[in-house]
Amino acid sequence: MFAIAVIVVAFQSLMLDAAEDASATKPNIVVILVDDMGYGDPGCFNAESQIPTPHIDSLAHDGMRFTDAHAPGPLCHMSRYGLMTGRYPFRTNVNLWPTQPLIEPEQMTIASLAQSQGYHTAMVGKWHLGFKESGYDQPLPGGPVDCGFDSFFGIRASTDIPPYFYIRDDQAVQPPSNQIEANNSEGWSPIQGEFWRAGGIAPDLQLKDVLPRFTDEATSIIERHAENQDAARPLMLYIAYPAPHTPWLPSRAFAGKSGAGMYGDFLMMVDAQIGRVLESLRTAAMEDDTLVLFSSDNGPVWYDADTKGFDHDSTGGLRGMKGDAWEAGHRMPFIARWPKHVAAGSQCDQLICFTDLLATMVDLLDVPLPQQAAPDSFSFLPALTGKDDGETKLRDEFVMRAGGMPSMMTIRQGRWKLITGLGSGGFSKPKRLAPSGDGVTGQLYDMQADPQETNNLFAQHPEVVAALSKRIEAIVRAPHRTAY
To answer: DSSP string of 203-221?
Structure first.
């Protein structure tokens, strides 16, 4: 590990030497990641959505929709780890996030890459990748400012996971010295509605204010960047909204305005916050020079009864929900807007994963990628811009671990999807099924003919099962991308 760190540090030092000259022609990059939004929630992905999302839809109108984009894991911390590092989350123990940082010192991230190229890097929102905690009156090492961001304002995890407090860079703004009682909403499941857990909360934080507070921070960063414009320092801004994850807390302006209950109302509020960010880019005259990437970290908490009760399919016809190996757990709405570079109103069916952001940025910035960095990252820049690049290998397969069963792996390769167990592996019931003795120990779906994953072909195609199982083993064992 020491040798890897030395190589990465040397790479970053080398890149910094040339960054000032090189970065003048690089675009600003704004990554907007929302939380627990389904594939079928935005109108641009589901014409029958009961939730107005005009600002997300505007990104699709002016940019490109990716219809086969996947989170690297169907839970918050798994997904964010992959996005930041270009590594599948099964390569580390993501369950350690409550007590220690998941990203190792000097490990390359999308932020450290941008920073090495002269970008001003900032993050606002939900981290959920761990800090080294020794009391909230002490510094919190291992977070965003130790992973390539020049600045950070946000929270350690979700707004239903205590303790609740704001963090500025690596310090608690105020420690969580007060207490808040647990809360639930009648008429919803225990993990829906105005749900949060009991625990410590800082005096300066109210859960209903977190979402607009983060937008205030994000727009302020954009405004300050425009006021102090330095052609040698483009902006890389990562906005990680902790919504529409629970608690669903729509403000009065949105309450009762959607056709999908308080969930839909809250997503309307999220969309409005995104609109504020886009307007800030426009006002700052940065819109044309900014690549905006938008997605959700994983699928929604939305049950069949919710779909029937509201006539709103948050999953857009996909099977399952958050946490699942089934498609709705990890196939995400993904949009890219970059005026004059990405065709407006376009659609792309190229298979991509959040881990691909790092390699795509490497391709975009035209810098080398150390062999040990981002082993599961493949550039989708040619698909994004429509320009062929014979040297760029596009992703042709995707591997993921289920959110609730560490032993259940998923691989998608071409038309085939193999799940190495029975059940959802996540939030949907049944989470796990024991084999019945007929030799069917997993699930095999033809995603071209059966995107709803209704017809298990495991018994009919043992040769496909064997080949995909072997492929999973090879990828899990591979230390870096070129090894598989």
So the answer is: TT--GGGHHHHHHHHHHHH
